[in-house]
Amino acid sequence: MTIDVEDYFQVSAFAPIIARDSWPSRECRVEANIERILAILESGGVHATFFTLGWIAERYPDMVRRIVAGGHELASHGYGHLRASDQTRAEFADDIKRSKALLEDIGGQAVLGYRAPSFSIGTSNLWALDVLHEAGYRYSSSIYPIAHDHYGMPDAPRFAFYPNGPDGLLEVPITTAMLGRRKLPAGGGGYFRLLPYSLSRWMMRRVNSDDGQPAIFYFHPWELDPGQPRPEGASLKTRFRHYVNLQRMEGRIKLLTRDFAWDRMDRIFLGTK
User: Domain named NodB homology: which ranges (predicted)?
Assistant: First the structure.
């Protein structure tokens, strides 16, 4: 179970209409939403991995400490939600080192995992995995092996793999399920809110039973917040993707905690305690 800790105004699809320099003046709702998530996870006996933006951690250090105190893994989502594919190698290295050091200082635990904003590591910038390894990360969950207009690496392996051999970084892709020869997104995001819950549950159970693999699920704090501010100027497609079924999301997350056994990424894939 993974949570990408960012706020509604930091979503990549809103970048054309929300200026980055306006972030500090916008209503930030992430802290209250994280409290709701922590309560849901505690009630369900679930420990998760929180891929956290450095920008958020810097402003809400007590929230980060509550995540750690709940027994969850603290991992990096970069500092300022910049796509890896939009950065040079040097810029990316600075970003991931900055966020790692900041999160470790606040959380008091080693940060081993990273997830690129918008799953923005793919065929054109696989060098980013080497940079992560050089910076001290042990795993990444930055590749979604599907075709999508904003992200995706359809030819990537469906399950955890070492792109550069066992001495390198472990990449743990977001879960997909096979229906015949068709690869279906099964790991969360807008698909989870749009599709019937029973279909998402079936796909993840199929991955568990037929493939014998754990499912990687992700969601965002703003997905549990139907009352969030709605900026003007977003396209119809963006509005649909962002707002569809927000009011159902909390109930669906509670169902997930009942229907599956979940744990932190580092425990499942790295064997940490």
Answer: 20-273
